[in-house]
Fold these 4 entries.
Entry 1:
Amino acid sequence: MSVYYFSASYYADCGTGNSNNACNSVTGPCYNSAMQCAWANLSGHGNSIAYYCGSSWLCNDKRASDVPLFSCGDVLWVQDLCNNNGVHVTVVDHGPNVCFCESKCNSVNLMRAIDLTEGAFSYLENGSLTKGHIPVMIQT
Amino acid sequence: MPMHEQFRTPERYRFVKGIITQISESTVSIIPYGENNEVEGFYVPEVTEFWKGGLNHIPEVIGQPGDQGTMSAFVDDSGKLLVETLYVNHKQVRGKITAKKDNLLIVQQQEPTGLCSSGIALKFHTDAVTFDDIPVDMNKISVGQSIIAQGEMVGPNLLDVYRIEVN
């Protein structure tokens, strides 16, 4: 088992023209209401954070190039460090394409490497969509 | 307040986004986007909360038929959908800033088809903050930057923004 700490946001564009549907041929399309996510370093699609921020871009003690490599269809256990809610999500998309190193709920600064569907984010946040990002623990 | 832990499991969870067809003091009905069948959610005293703009939820029922409803809910043992939150006309916009004037930004966003893009105006709620909870400083926002904005749709192409992030 591996454990990672990252920052997570949500996106409502999953499955639409604003997402690249990177995993469509493997997992089928992304559904906004499903427990799914986009991951930054996706096998066969590259590392979006290294691409947009530079591979040596640093957040806390992690470089962009340190983001672990996952594949379409991988299932991740994502736990919200603000309230300890957790859920399994399936990797179905590639992203986010941003350079953010951020903290919430007294976490240390964490690199944003995961975009949850609105449905998954809302589940973790007890039905709330008002936060922009949350610190999460990811287990594989 | 979160739904009781007996119901609050991923297996019972339903996230529904669509058009509100009926809303009362006890239930809301929504036709999910891309579907034909209406789903009905039942409010739970001291649990169900509502949102229509700003950073806070409220306990009072808000919204009307024709509004967009985004519902977080859980199925009970009898198959009833118990509502945890109902967001009215909530929208997240991602795109590029193409114009800026006073308290207003124009953002070019991609259409769901991906074939074309459309403009949307963002005006800022009085208590609008960044993703890091810092009050928005318009002087730090420039044309050409990428933006993520969350807010309430108050017109066909107008978002009343409560939270933004500029990259």
Entry 2:
Amino acid sequence: MSKEKKPGWKDLPRGGLILDAGNAHEYQTGGWRIKRPEWIEENCIHCLFCWVYCPDSSIETQEGKMTGINYEHCKGCGICAEVCPAKKTAIEMEPEGRKEDSDE
Amino acid sequence: MSKRVALTGNEAIAKAMQQINPDVVAAYPITPQTEIVQIFSKYVADGEVDTEFVTVESEHSAMSAVVGSAAGGARSMTATSANGLALMWEIVYIAASTRLPIVMPVVNRALSAPINIHCDHSDAMGARDSGWIQLFSENAQEAYDNAIQAVRIGEHKDVLLPVMVNLDGFIISHAVENFNINEPEKVQEFIGEYKPEHTLLDKENPITVGPLDLQDYYFEHKRQQSEAMKYALQAVKDVGQEYGRLTGREYGYFSEYRVDDAEIVLIGMGSTMGTARAAVDELREQGVKVGLIKIRMFRPFPGEELARALAHVPVIGVLDRAESFSNNGGPLFTDMHVALYGQEHKLYDFIYGLGGRDTNVSHLKGIFSMLQKAKDGEALDRVNYIGVRE
């Protein structure tokens, strides 16, 4: 979390309104995840089914090809792994908090 | 010119809604409120209003629909009673917390169980901490006048809170009374156009309504609501005075009746206040110095103003048409205790009229008689139940 000073009640919009568009990008929700999708690049056929189905725009692409997963917003729902049609699946769900993750 | 009419309380509210001509009404029928939206739906069908009328499948949906329409910038109303209000519960809080100036007549009725469709204030009292402004009415005139003023109070730029207009089930809602209604143009002129600063339909200035609001922001939004209730005090007063200039019927937080030299004063809300006034008159004829305070605005609670009005009164009785089951008296009693804390008054609670139990002049005179004995030094329970069989 940033250390910037947050506005007090006198300066905030009333009723919890957010007056800036596109603010979901700033709000990182990846911390909710208990399983993470692991992308196996060599199996990927770049069909972008995962990109279509992801409810949180967490599949990153470039020039029509998948390039990775945005873990700051991915909540680990597993839909991408479920819909992946590749013969050898290109997305596998792995539990968060494994010992090897803590070395990252 | 205003017009003298003979209508029931429900018809009076429906007439007020017709004259307000809200953008959206979403409602579900429940006794004794049903007639309000039934009559109003006829105005819609006959093209007498421009309202988008949404027939929803429950009160939870009714309140949800008006939360949505109000967030979209529409002047929005609904109406309910008792169990219907209870079913709205979750969204009643959301309406206030999202700062949406919805106006909702509540035809007061006992909450189940056992099932009862008649008047008491247990429905509205349950919502007293929901963040709504709550006005109470003694008769059809006040119900009509409160409904019109509620629009202005809630939409005031410093308030932006929903307003509940309470009227006693059956006693007001189904009894025909003579009262004055305003000219429709006068009402439109008085309420003016609703111009919310932010709405969901303003596509040039997109907003998010009702986002996640966790440990780092929620408290600030609650603090804003507390402040809005302070502004509501001013708005209720200003709007009540302006309405008085328009109609000759001025409204404040409460009204005093023969309180100036009174030694015993009863304080309460709703239709029983007319009965209490008759009891005061009868006792005054016998030389007993009694008076009455009728509270119109229950939320925000005008504690400081009541304390000032009652400063000279040694014995005070509170009329509660609801039980809070706290073993500490009814809801109005506990608020009065806080308002008068640290002062020398003797204060007693009288819980009465639950489930529509009739409360007549002799009951009220009996209460004054109990208070007279307490004044003379006899013991009296702090909380008393009036008109219940032992």
Entry 3:
Amino acid sequence: MMAYSEDHIALAAEYALGTLDADERAQVEAMMSADKDFTAMVEAWEHKLSVLNQMVGSVEPRPQVWDKIKTAAGLSEPQAPLALPDPPPVAAEVMEAFAAADTSNVIRLSTQARRWRNVATLTTAIAAALVAMIAVGVYQPDLLPERIRPTPRTQIVEVKTAPSAPTPSAQYVAVLQKEGGSPAFILTVDGATRNFTVRKVDAAAGPGKSFELWLISDRLGPPRSLGVIGEGDFTARPTLASYDANIVNAATYAVTVEQAGGSPNGRPTSAPVFAGKLIESVPPAAAPAPSPSR
Amino acid sequence: MLTPAELVWLIAAVAKGDEAAFERLYAATRAKLFGVVLRILRRQDLAEEVIQETYVRIWNSAGQFNPGLSSPITWMVSIARNRAIDVVRKRSEVSIEEEPAAMEVAADSPDPLARREMTEELKRLLECVGRLEPDRQKLVLLAYYNGWSREQLAAKFETPVNTVKTWLRRSMMDIRECLGL
């Protein structure tokens, strides 16, 4: 462990003790996300002090708390119902891009990426199947293989965002998912304008923190910030418009937890907690007037 | 209460998505965690929200628990306690007037329940805390058990905030030296 100044040691100790104000706590958390040794020091203090809790009496919470936990953790929801073939790993560039930052989450990320990819692949399969059915003008669910009959879970319904523009253009969607849970963010990009919308599904950055969205492309080098994701359910931004369409389509989109207002230096200060790639969810003009080509 | 080894095993199972293990882990630890956060938040509804968030976080990040660095209950209590303190800090920024009433209710010393559980580690820490001047012993324990801010401690000890800040810092450094951290 590297040597820390007395100020740092005192900050770690007071964080564990609990006497810092909200700003200082956010500062410590930012330092922890960027510095493993500092994290270890804070945790050592937490460990030393936590024996004091042996003297705190136990109190039973009400039974409905458990129900709320189950719902919030997504326990009652079924896991991915289909076993699709293993998709190729997609997180390699994410790992490289974040190699300089704390990488303790990154191993988890490849699993996350694989999982959202499964969802994404499934979504594409269902969308393609639906387009095909409309094209032949026959609705015969029986023709569909049992496995991809359109009985999508809620999260898949969320993904199929209808285009809002009067002239429908291709819509791209990325599911930014957290391991073991439902999607945290759904990123939709309008193919024509490249305006994007981030819909917050289930995520909280925590007090004094912001989620920041990054574009990662092997052609651009370090991750590029697409801005802080707002507090509301939807955040719409034009910031992708300046990027080349090929980059936008092939990039990985990642969300990190940053200090309130975003990373101070334009670079991520922590490993991504959610990541995903764009897939085409609504082909051009497919929604209102299905093309017979498929 | 399960043994630490059993809790480690349960957390490992939770990390793999084992819902039954998660339920057992909750059953084994909820009352302790709730007791800790209720003491800090002093409101049933807020404490329940914090417990809910804590267990969702445990479910999502069980894979990050490292039994080599921390004990299961310490890891879980730290998540709960940090969240509770974040909540009270945010609240006291909004309305500091609510706090004096809460302070009247607050006990001056830690709950003497469950003293029988006192371990060697706790005895050692208390020995170090006990070497501080009496006022500072109280300061540290009130801060830890009740989650009080420097401002609340300053009001309680009728001392400027900056003095409390110095006392806290000095006390933690003394404890550090005593524990050999």
Entry 4:
Amino acid sequence: MAKRIKTSAAVVVLAILPGVGVYAQAVEELSEITVSGAQEDATANATDSSLGARSPEKSTLASKRPITSDSTHLLEDIPGVSLYGAGGISSLPVIHGLADDRLRVQVDGMDLMPACPNHMNSALSYIDPTKVASVTVFAGVTPVSVGGDSIGGTTQVKSAPPEFARAGETVFVEGQAGTFFRSNGRGLGYNYGGTLAGRWASLSYSESSSQADNYTAGRDFKPVASGRESGPLIAGNVVGSTAYHGATNRDIGLALRYEGHLLEVKVGRQTVGFEGFPNQRMDMTANKNNLINLRYTGLYPWGDLEARVYTQDTRHKMDMGPDRYFYGLGMPMETKGKTKGAQAEGNITVSDRDIVRLGAEYQAYILYDWWPPVGGAMGPNAFWNIDYGQRDKIDAFAEWEARWNPKWVSQLGIRGDAVRTNAGPVQGYDNGLAGTWGSDAAAFNALDRERTDVNWDLTALARYTPSDTHVYEIGYSRKSHSPSLYQRYPWATNAMAALMNNFVGDGNGYVGNVDLKPEVANMVSATGDWHDREKRRWRVSATSYYTYVGDYIDARRCDFGQCSAANVTATTGFLLLQYVNQTARLYGFDLSGQLLLRETHNHGSFTVTGLMNYVRGENQTTGDNLYNIMPLNTKLALVHRLGGWFGVAEFQAVAGKTHVSQVRHEMQTGAYRLLNLRGSYGWKHARLNAGIDNVFNRFYAMPLGGAYVGQGASMSSNGIPWGTPVPGMGRSIHVAVNVSF
Amino acid sequence: MNCAERTSPVYPRLSLRLGEQGRTLLLVELDERGRVANVSVKTSSGFTRLDEAAVSAVKGWRCTPAIRNGLAVRSVATQPFNFALTGR
């Protein structure tokens, strides 16, 4: 009956249509044709889904996002990626053994700069994990369109693209809120946000905050002792200076679109009340960061255009946290950073075969780093660690991607950048104390400190897809990275001052080197990916790589200024080092895969996933090992999915770290195995996450966690014991709830 | 109506980028030789781009004409298209 009524209605319509004459019969209804397509992320770079890109599984991202406070942890299941330990919200990413400044880390397209001699306010600390909608890592040969001023790869972290009302809707409203709790360290946090949008305009707001006390390791790893003079005792299993509080991000976004054009402005403010750093000599006592990100993207007949201007203003303070000696008046340190950036990129579709990407970028960074006077030898003036530091960069690139046929894709790219760095004259607390401050300051001030580097990057990539069950990629790249301000300009050889200049967490002190040259990495990389046709039942992916780095910035023992002769020959203890260009090579492989074990309607699917990473780093000049190279590590997980349920039992095994940097007195760490359980259940408007990390409360030292200097007299070189790596977190139970409407 | 080659429309790239999706209903008229003589939008998806993509695809179809009393005659049918996005 229903069909007949429809047919009759169609005939009525036909009767009023022009040009419709005599028909064979009433209007026939043909079966519906579904045309499906993957929505393109308007914020995405055109290369996101192509050569060299890696992203975590969506379900993995969704299960980890609500329970961590550190966005860098969202990268840890990507093959080839590991993490340097730092503060509770600011680990540093490592790709194939190269970390921190050697990577290009972009947050919503912005190249955010740390304004801290310890890199406490790293780029990824400026986006809350709950805001992260996508993570893309270019771990191997990085296309020049996403690289530049980096030798180790690129990490792109993005928040969700703006939402608009869809066809048939006049207004689009959505909101979400969530909270979490972690038992170890009593971590707490909340987040909420919402969007109000029409067809052409979208307004969004979000806020998130987190806090935690010091966490505990799986067992005692040091004596019970006071951290501060006459302060409360810190238990043997408590990892001092790992607490943080008042870490709050607020973001407001306005987006306008018309046809294929999108204009978006995001304004963000982050404030951190306190963040402890167990592998640094002091803690962050305040951080205020303001971001403005204005972006345009437009589609044109010839391709698409993306342009961006952004600013970052940072005020950052450090001092002795509650677990450290306060020395009467503490030791305040302050930094002020200002970054301005502009980018423009055009993706030009030259033909069905060829895409050409052309782009230009500019970034200007200014840094002031000063330490207010506190009296005694640390007064009467402020100490200027870096005064009016400048790092300006201008880049241009061209990239040609050709799809020769369904099997072969090639990409060639060239990128040039000019990096200028400079720093103003400095002063110590009292230049009259020549042996302590004055001589070093005078020597630095006498130098010509301005340097301009012209760097060239080249990339050649090819992808071969012989069938729909396997793909191969091979590539070569030459990439460059100019030294940072904190590698060129810290000038003091005074032990206390040098100890404050350290962004690798090894507890040593560092002196800059104005004459450092840019690092140049030559890399070859090959990847094979084998899978079933639907990429659902099984998949194995393997990547191997070899990187030779000329002028690799490593360290040598300081043997000038106030550095002692013993510093050069010491075999234990903390040291004073100076950055120096040497030669290095890194090589290794990573393997990942999955296998669908069983799938039934009643019991859902059971999948095994695996990951294995190996990297080796050697200093070719000295024969030493490179610092902080992650030992062989694997993860094996059983994943169960059934309706709204997602459960993971994850087994992690890490080999002992025996290849350690002698020049830095890097400590060995032991092998360990951990079991983590995570579960998540989603309803239409809510999701509950719960789990246990480190189920058996195993004690382990983090291979890349650095040296434990998180309590006691951390301002003096060997006033605290040497030889204790920062331990990982003991057992922790977490639960998180998120609702949306 | 018997159309051997009902080629699907190509999802317009701009629509993919802009998140446009919806259901388009076309009125398709065949002439006595089975050629698509006329195509019109009966119900719009709400997006001209999607409607035009559907119309463009239908214009290329090859069909067998309807037969009445042994003679080929003009015929008409409605053809729904559902443009659906994944990943949202």
